[in-house]
User: What shape does this take?
Amino acid sequence: MTELVQVENLGRAFDALWAVNGVSFSVERGELLGLIGPNGAGKSTLYNLLAGALAPTRGEIVFDGQRVTGWKPYHMARVGMARTFQIPKPYRRLSVVENVMLASFQRHRSVRSARVFAEEILADVGLSDHVTAPVTTLTVGLLKRLEVARALALEPKLVLFDEIMAGLTPTEVAAMTGFVSTLPARGITVIWVEHVLHAIMKTATRVMVLDRGQLIANDAPKAVARDAAVIKAYFGEEISLA
Amino acid sequence: MAQSPGRISLAPARGTLSVFEIALLVLCLVLVVAPIPQNLQDIIVLTFLWAGLATAWNIAGGYTGLISFGHAAFFGIGAYTSTILLVRMNVTPWVGIWCGGLLAAFCGAILAVICVRLRGPFFILSTLAAAEVIRIAALNWSSLTGGPEGLAISPAADPVNMVFASKHAYLALMLGYLLLSYALTKLIDGSRYGYYLFAARDDEDAASAAGVNPLAVRTVALMLSAALTGIGGSLFAQYFLYLDPTFVISPEVSFQFALLPAVGGLGTAIGPVLGSFLITPMSELLRSYLGSKVAGLHLAIYSALLIVVVLYFPSGIAGALSGLSRRKGGKS
Assistant: This one.
């Protein structure tokens, strides 16, 4: 069995509005799957459904061979689904390493070994210089890296990245893109929401496009870039360049 | 190793003892055995007891962010449980205090089921209301609690009844209670579970995403805090040998629980202890020296001092001291 995630007819309504509607897809182990779409397309809602932060109105989610529909976020984290938050949510009264330790406790039960592992992860994402710093001293770019570190410290099977590039400099974008592309080889399947499209198009093995709550494309990056429906969703009906 | 803010550098790392803490412990032990005038011993007994109570409150309020203005309920439940067991059923308080702690923990669990989803002011108000419910129940359930007349414990000195002639015994008892509260706090402080409390306090969504169930963590923290508070309530009753609902379950008592850690430093082990060591003697001395001369003057001065602390030391005495030692010594 190679499929890590199977989503079947997933939908979530907020009153009369379906933020996600009839979405079905599956993710193979080792994939690096891009998820793109215009603002308000339902990407964040889809993430919240997968991670258990929202209960679906209908549909099914199977993760790692288990039906996990309606599970709580902490259950999902325990069975190996990690996520980052679009707006970083650090524990603001703890240090950088303590923030990561809270995730590494899932696999490392003693404080000492959780800390050792957290420091390894911090080195991976380039936060070695900030291990004992209070999180309140981190810049936006560093907070994004901390989000990534916390997600990876769970040693997840699947990680959901939510705009980890926003606010980063071009150099940082290049470094982060390179780092993310190494994750599948480490046994971590990735779903990646990003507005920095060239990063996605360069590294993703497959790209899904969400528009108005529905999946309108699901293909290789190059094919998606030429897809008429995708172009329409991003640029509108007609573009006349005089 | 560098310190982060909000961490007191008097305590070098989570879960270890600093020189400052050991010095404080020695001072406390000296105060227990030293030949001091009785009226001062009274103040020290109360200071130890309130330091232990504030430490118990801090597990919920400081570490977990469950700011409770209803801890007088747990205090009262502990006090009434051991006293009723002693007065009505002749059960020794040496057993009764643990029963009081257990019952308080059970009530903490009930409160948690009702309130633990509420945040900020909503949680605070619901705890305040819950304590009033307990107070009114104690006032009206006269057959059990003696109603507004309260309950009195026989003052005849008898170690089996936990009633002593010597103040030294009470000093030792209260210091023992303070050490129990403090040891549990230090245990939490250095442990995985302690980090879960911080996570549930600082960001519920992030805690969940890290595999921590914030509601379960808060419930356990509130139960532990309530249990320790209940034990303290029993000891309070054994010291005063009298209790009535307004004396032990009033909102003023609840405010005191929150006030001492706030002054000393929320979410630090040493904070509530420092808070009690400053505030309890101050309020007792002000009352005894000024209370009889100008009615209300001691309260005015007491309030003015509190305002100064809150305005100029927002992270409490512990925060101010650790800031001072950082400026002087750089990284410790």
